[in-house]
């Protein structure tokens, strides 16, 4: 069979947005910023925070909702994959916490950390798992960025929110094409990173300088560099995926881009040569929830009855690494 026709079917979607909604004005009470500054530069009006609660609680809720929407019993799931760059533990992995909470006793478990590219990369990888013999896969992307934001860094913290989205996937003879890429950064200038502070005294330590280099447990970003990278990377990946699929970009029914900020999306879409009517965004209400952005969009579209059999969707994203990529699926 043509490899491009080894596709996936989304049999259920779910998402969880925590109830704590923070407006730009509320951020302006603790930071030197304003609704006008944030909205005009990013398109963000509100974001949701999980109120200090752990990330996995959102993952579990989104997973339960996707299973219910799919009408699939947890026992029938044979793999759980969780995308998160903000896990509560390095281990146990978040997928195992989800497995335990939803009662998916027959599932294998795997976490991936591809930062904001996690949903695109996960779809690509899960396609491989489905064709290696796993039948029903629960894929959850969950991110709790409020726990990792530096609320004294006004250029960064205002961008992010918390949330989780999930899909239940199986094999289908439908179009599936991916194009994953990366432009690896140096450890001296990682551009977008989060590094946990090492607080214990290492008994055998000859790297004093290295240990103090990134003395932070907050997400750090060179916003301008990320912007420059993203506006080229997203159209490049989407065009390459379309070429691989033998499609013109006009033949894509809907683009679901990483919801980093509206200016990045608008610039990338302009360079792709498609109309914003074909692009789904929810940045205004959610901010950037990293790898959770796309499955939350997907669930909103599903709930609104906007996903139709035969539609061609293009997921296109970028993230820390720097990584980027696009996946085209036919529903
Ligand atoms: N409120 C008010 N003023 C601010 C704020 C704020 N929240 N943040 C920065 N400023 C100030 C700066 O201090 C600066 O002031 P100065 O000129 O007196 O020094 C001024 O605004 C302009 O700062 P810039 O950094 O030049 O602002 P810019 O127009 O570049 O916008 C932004 C910053 C929005 C972060 C932009 O660089 C951007 O969109 N970058 C991409 C970031 C992004 O979306 N990353 C993705 C996240 S990670 C991921 O999803 C993979």
Description of the structure:
The protein has 331 residues and is an alpha/beta fold. The protein contains 11 helices and 13 strands. The chain has helices at 24-28, 35-42, 55-70, 94-102, 118-131, 154-157, 208-213, 223-245, 262-272, 283-286, 293-303, and strands at 7-16, 20-23, 46-49, 79-83, 108-112, 137-144, 162-172, 176-182, 192-194, 219-221, 254-257, 312-319, 323-330. The strands form 4 sheets. It has a 5-stranded mixed sheet with strand order 1-7-6-4-5, with helices on both faces. A hairpin with a 3-residue loop joins strand 12 (312-319) and strand 13 (323-330). Helix 8 packs parallel to helix 9 (262-272). The radius of gyration is 19 Å and the shape is globular. The two termini are 18 Å apart. The model has no long low-confidence stretch (mean pLDDT 94). It binds acetyl coenzyme *A. Acetyl coenzyme *A is lined by residues 33, 37-38, 41-42, 116, 154-155, 158-159, 192, 221, 223-224, 226-227, 258, 260-261, 264, 288, 290, 318-320. Acetyl coenzyme *A (ACO) binds next to helix 2, helix 6, helix 8 and strand 12.
């Amino acid at each position: 069979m043509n490899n491009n026709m080894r596709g996936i079917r989304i049999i259920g979607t779910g998402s969880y947005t925590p109830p704590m909604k923070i407006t730009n004005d509320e951020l302006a009470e603790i930071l030197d910023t304003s609704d006008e500054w944030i909205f005009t530069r990013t398109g963000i009006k509100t974001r949701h925070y999980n109120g200090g609660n752990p990330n996995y609680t959102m993952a579990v809720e989104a997973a339960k909702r996707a299973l219910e929407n799919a009408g699939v019993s947890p026992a029938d799931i044979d793999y759980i994959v969780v995308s998160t760059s903000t896990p509560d533990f390095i281990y146990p992995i978040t997928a195992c916490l989800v497995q335990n909470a939803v009662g998916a006793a027959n599932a294998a478990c795997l976490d991936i950390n591809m930062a904001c590219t996690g949903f695109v990369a996960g779809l690509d990888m899960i396609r491989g798992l489905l064709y290696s013999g796993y039948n029903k896969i629960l894929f959850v992307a969950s991110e709790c960025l409020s726990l990792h934001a530096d609320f004294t860094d006004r250029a960064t913290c205002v961008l992010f929110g918390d949330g989780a989205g999930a899909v239940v996937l199986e094999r289908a003879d439908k179009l599936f094409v991916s194009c994953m890429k990366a432009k690896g950064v140096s450890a001296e200038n990682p551009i977008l990173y989060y590094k946990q502070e090492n607080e214990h005294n290492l008994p055998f330590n000859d790297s004093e300088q290295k240990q103090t280099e990134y003395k932070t447990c907050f997400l750090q970003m060179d916003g301008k560099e990320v912007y420059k990278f993203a506006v080229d990377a997203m159209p490049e990946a989407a065009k390459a995926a379309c070429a691989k699929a033998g499609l013109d970009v006009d033949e894509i029914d809907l683009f679901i881009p990483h919801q980093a900020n509206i200016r990045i999306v608008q610039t990338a879409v302009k360079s792709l040569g498609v109309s914003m009517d074909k692009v789904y965004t929810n940045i205004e209400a959610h901010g950037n929830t990293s790898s959770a952005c796309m499955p939350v969009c997907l669930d909103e579209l599903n709930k609104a009855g906007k996903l139709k059999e035969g539609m061609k969707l293009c997921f296109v994203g970028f993230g820390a690494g720097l990584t980027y990529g696009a996946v085209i699926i036919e529903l």
